[in-house]
Design goal:
306 residues; Rossmann fold; 2 domains; DNA_methylase_N6_adenine_CS; S-adenosyl-L-methionine; Site-specific DNA-methyltransferase (adenine-specific); SAM-dependent_MTases_sf; methyltransferase
């Protein structure tokens, strides 16, 4: 029996809230059980993967991201879950033992400094025991930082401030164990989105969720890695989508809808003109101003009809 898993990290642009809307846009071949390979080139919080794996039987799954600590965290959950849970429990115990916010804040910044120092020396492509502690800190910081946001500066340093949360579940043991079960047999890869192209064939479904094109100069939270994802990157991704289509594979792609703020901005309508472009409504969950967290349109591009 398959288990339902919640994303164990909060991620900017996470798709949990959109899953009910996505259901009507998945390809019929997937719903009929005819697709046996699933690929995500931008893994992030993994909401779509966790949802699909709970419903469909894939023979092969490849999950990729350019963010090293993200892939390390998934790997540790997949392969070293008991050690991870033990360390997370300890971090949670210490954090909750502090009664005043200043002590909690000091602990947060100590862990953030250690996390950033680890980033300077860790090899994200070769396993070491340090991965366990790095993954635990990744989860700890995500649970205790401001708005559950992941962001890097130009030097690749994690720079999100403290979230001032008095009570928080840092170690959700049951969900982490369910995530381990969901990741059984999954291939995790680290790299640019194009690196997964070698795995794609005509029996593949690919969900593409890149860093979103910002709707304004002040709404950019696209720095998941120190390599920026700009308009040139979006254009390169669109060309890659065409190559997926040429292989006979099926894809679904999400992005922001520029027409929310400028009706004349047809950036994605022009980029994906040969494909099907749908629009869905999403809540803007990550915004420093609570009164600006409302419903906005997002685009959903597919190379197949509903």
């Amino acid at each position: 029996m398959k288990t339902n898993v919640k994303p164990f990290l909060k991620w900017a642009g996470g798709k949990s809230q959109l899953l009910p809307q996505f259901e009507q846009y998945y390809p019929e071949k997937l719903k009929k059980g005819e697709i046996k390979k699933y690929i995500e080139p931008f893994l992030g919080g993994g909401a779509v993967f966790f949802y699909l794996q709970s419903k469909y039987n894939f023979q092969e799954v490849i999950l990729n991201d350019i963010n090293g600590e993200l892939i390390v965290t998934y790997y540790i959950i997949q392969n070293k879950i008991e050690q991870l849970i033990n360390y997370l429990k300890n971090l949670e115990k210490v954090y909750l033992s502090y009664e005043n916010m200043e002590d909690k804040q000091n602990m947060f910044y100590e862990q953030r400094d250690t996390f950033n120092k680890e980033k300077e020396n860790i090899d994200y492509e070769k396993y070491s025991e340090n991965w366990i502690y790095h993954a635990a800190r990744m989860i700890f910081l995500n649970k205790t930082c401001f708005n559950g946001l992941y962001r890097q500066n130009k030097r690749g340093k994690y720079n999100v401030p403290f979230g001032k949360r008095k009570k928080v579940t840092i170690c959700d043991k049951e969900n982490l164990l369910n995530a381990k079960e969901a990741l059984k047999g999954v291939k995790l890869t680290l790299g640019d989105f194009e690196s997964v192209g070698k795995y794609i064939d005509k029996n593949t479904f690919i969900y593409i969720d890149p860093p979103y094109r910002p709707l304004s100069d002040t709404s950019s939270f696209t720095d998941y890695s120190k390599i920026p994802f700009n308009d040139d990157s979006q254009k390169r991704l669109a060309e890659w989508a065409k190559s997926i289509d040429d292989k006979g594979a099926l894809f679904m792609l999400s992005n922001s809808d520029p027409t929310n703020t400028n009706e004349e901005d047809k950036f994605f309508d022009e980029l994906y003109i040969k494909f099907n472009i749908n629009r869905v409504m999403a809540g803007r969950m990550i915004n420093s101003k609570g009164n600006r967290r409302g419903k906005i349109r997002e685009i959903l591009v597919t190379n197949y009809s509903k």
